[in-house]
Write a structure and sequence with these properties.
By secondary structure, the protein is mostly helical. The protein is built from 13 helices and two strands; from the N terminus they run H-E-H-H-H-H-H-H-H-H-E-H-H-H-H.
Length: 238
């Protein structure tokens, strides 16, 4: 079963759109994945572009709240390792990371046999997109071809159909993805500005208070808290 942690909002929004005569709902989903990534830091590292790399790393602190900026810098370091070390060394590095990482409380929600099956191939490097030379291009290819993306589109389409709507995902437009695969990874992050391509492209269309905002809402804490609170009740449904 799929879970929508914000279902009351989803239902009211889509029911209201349908009542107003709308037939198609445009989703901004995959905007982060297609238009922003830290994988291009690995490309800058391999190219020896030290000044550009340092400038973009510094810009993360200018465009994100401190907690998220730290997370993105750690992600950039992981991407640098993932796409620069020899492929044969990746399983050992993944094993070491799993041993050093803090235990995740959410794992207790999953059955032991399920976790064992899910993590069976966790140390094996991904094979898709190995022919792509740039780290940024390969990271994007893995993102849009991953099973989660297919699953997410399916459940979004089913929710939309429940309300008599179609869902459309402009960020997964084929031309946009091909463009992102073709250009250098740091290009759409001009001067280290995240989603600079979108910000500049929507100048005069999107209000500047939104277009140039430096923060993003994070619902992780209330969603995790609600899931923990309602876990016992949810178990009785299945």
């Amino acid at each position: 079963p799929w879970l929508d942690s914000l279902w009351p909002l989803t239902h009211q929004l889509q029911a209201g759109a349908r009542a107003a005569g709308a037939r198609r709902l445009l989703s901004g989903h995959w905007g982060d994945q297609v238009l922003h990534s830290t994988a291009y830091f690995a490309d800058l590292l391999r190219a020896g572009a030290w000044r550009t790399l340092a400038r973009h790393a510094q810009a993360l602190g200018d465009w994100f709240l401190p907690g998220e900026a730290r997370h993105l810098r750690r992600q950039a370091a992981r991407d640098a390792l993932r796409y620069t070390v020899p492929r044969a060394a990746l399983p050992a590095l993944k094993w070491l990371r799993l041993r050093l990482a803090r235990p995740q409380g959410g794992k207790a929600w999953l059955g032991r046999a399920f976790r064992r099956r899910a993590l069976r191939d966790a140390l094996r490097p991904a094979d898709m997109g190995r022919w792509l030379c740039r780290a940024q291009a390969r990271a994007l290819y893995l993102e849009v071809r991953g099973q989660y993306s297919v699953h997410c589109m399916e459940w979004n389409n089913k929710v939309a159909a429940l309300h008599g709507l179609d869902h459309a995902f402009p960020m997964l437009d084929r031309d946009l993805i091909q463009f992102r695969l073709a250009v250098p990874g740091h290009g759409p992050h001009h001067a280290g500005v995240p989603r600079a391509l979108l910000r500049e492209g929507l100048a005069g269309v999107l209000p500047d208070a939104i277009r140039r905002r430096r923060w993003k809402a994070d619902f992780s804490e209330p969603v995790n808290g609600g899931a923990a609170r309602d876990l016992d009740a949810a178990r009785t449904l299945f």
